[in-house]
Amino acid sequence: QFFRFADRKSGGVARKDLRELDWFIPRRKKDYRQLIDSLAAGRMDLSPIEPVHPQYQLLKRELQRLYDETWIDNLPLVDLGDRRKLEPGDRDSTVLALRRRLIAFGDLEATADSGLVMDSTLVAGLQRFQERHGLLPDGVAGKGVVKQINTPVADRIRTILVNMERLRWVPEVQPPNVILVNIPEYRMHIYEADTLAWSMNVVVGATATRTVVFSDELTTIVFNPYWNIPRSIIRNEILP
């Protein structure tokens, strides 16, 4: 039972499930010798079989932080009502809810003014929140901000758990030069010598035609390739 658990913790979901998710990444090789040694010494050390990808440990720390912040879900939601957005200088009763949530998330000092006006301090805290969530840091509370700031902590915990699971499938050894496509972000990031060198927007598949996830070596790049629209796209997405 213990080694079955170790296999699950190390490798994640079954190979069949990976194929159904369109994930085509080679599974990590497992070496249980260190685990056996720790058991023989009377220790319960699972670190030898945990993913070593640095993002896994970062997510693990963020997960623990979120477990300590589930109380935030009890705070009032930010409700714009008939407004489309809150801009710097605006006065509204929902500004108080915005302040409380920004303070709870650590983007605004707890000693900040508790008024109903979008003052400069609140705007600066909102910009920090926007930057952390991949939003345009314009200091304006629109629909995107409201959606992110009202997202239940429980949902964020589930998202992190899903991504920690995915990192169990990623190869342990990453080359120093990597091209990484972050599908939910619609962005491609290029790392040289483990340092971010360049990022750009990319087109990814929709839910019904999702992008296949794979890991491989890039050998050829075609600049300005021609592209003829496939008949399936013409039939299913263009023609009325």
Layout of strands and helices, then pairs:
Blueprint: H1 2-11, H2 15-20, E1 23-24, H3 33-40, H4 54-67, H5 95-104, H6 120-132, H7 143-149, H8 153-167, E2 178-182, E3 187-192, E4 195-201, E5 213-214, H9 231-238
Parallel strand pairs: 1-5
Antiparallel strand pairs: 2-3, 3-4
Helix pairs in contact: 4-8
Tell me what the structure shows.
This protein is mainly α and 240 residues long. Among the domains are: 78-149, Orthogonal Bundle (Muramoyl-pentapeptide Carboxypeptidase, domain 1), CATH 1.10.101; 175-240, no CATH class. Helices cover 38% and strands 9% of the residues. It is built from 9 helices and 5 strands; from the N terminus they run ααβααααααββββα. The chain has helices spanning 2-11, 15-20, 33-40, 54-67, 95-104, 120-132, 143-149, 153-167, 231-238, and strands at residues 23-24, 178-182, 187-192, 195-201, 213-214. The chain has a 3-stranded antiparallel sheet with strand order 2-3-4, with no helix packed on it. Strands 1-5 form a two-stranded parallel ribbon. The radius of gyration is 23 Å and the shape is globular. The N and C termini lie far apart (56 Å).
